[in-house]
Write a structure and sequence with these properties.
- The protein is mainly α and 202 residues long.
- 73% of the residues lie in helices and 0% in strands.
């Protein structure tokens, strides 16, 4: 096929629909090259319209979501997006506004697997602080669902338990969000604080 009759109109449409510059358009296409093979009328247009309506997004918010998580363009509405959003809304006890808020703050949720990633992480937080506290934590900062269970959360939980540090929402948030350097520093500080308290109590 000729590039000027097939790809160029698609690129122009994407750029106009998402109101993005050439640099952002190039980045999007590099992130998900398959977008070049997607039909505008049969795929991209209805998908973006559906997302915008389901999440009550204005044009600017829709553009930001797609730029932050371009892979969403490759997802099926019926097989992925619709069931994923319904599951998230029910699992996290969110109203429509709450659902819109967590997706806008952490778009990768749309890409992450429920059984392989999201649910096990929710269960981890639930086991640590209880169901209600875990759900409130996630609603407040959905990015904590992106923390790796095996590489970050479980090893840090073991360190917390070994040091007898109280397991509360503050500790869990630090476990999820801190860089390795921040975590090491914070852990040492917590251990020192606990030791002082133990000495004072004697």
């Amino acid at each position: 096929y000729r590039i000027d009759t097939n790809l160029e109109p698609k690129l122009v449409w994407l750029q106009e629909r998402l109101d993005i510059n050439e640099k952002s358009l190039s980045k999007l296409v590099l992130s998900i090259p398959s977008v070049l093979g997607m039909s505008i009328e049969g795929n991209l247009k209805p998908k973006l319209s559906w997302l915008q309506e389901r999440l009550s997004l204005d044009d600017k918010s829709l553009s930001k979501l797609v730029r932050r998580s371009p892979s969403v363009l490759g997802l099926s509405i019926e097989d992925n997006l619709k069931p994923k959003l319904s599951w998230l809304q029910a699992r996290l006890q969110l109203d429509s506004t709450g659902l819109c808020s967590i997706i806008q703050r952490f778009p990768p949720l749309l890409i992450m697997g429920i059984e392989t990633n999201i649910e096990p992480t929710i269960e981890f937080y639930k086991d640590c602080v209880g169901s209600n506290a875990a759900i409130q934590m996630i609603a407040k900062n959905p990015r904590i669902l992106g923390s790796s269970l095996e590489n970050r959360l479980k090893p840090r939980l073991a360190q917390v338990q070994e040091a007898s540090i109280p397991l509360n929402t503050g500790t869990i948030n630090r476990m999820a969000k801190y860089t390795d350097e921040q975590w090491s520093t914070g852990l040492a500080s917590q251990k020192t604080k606990l030791l002082r308290q133990q000495l004072e109590d004697r």
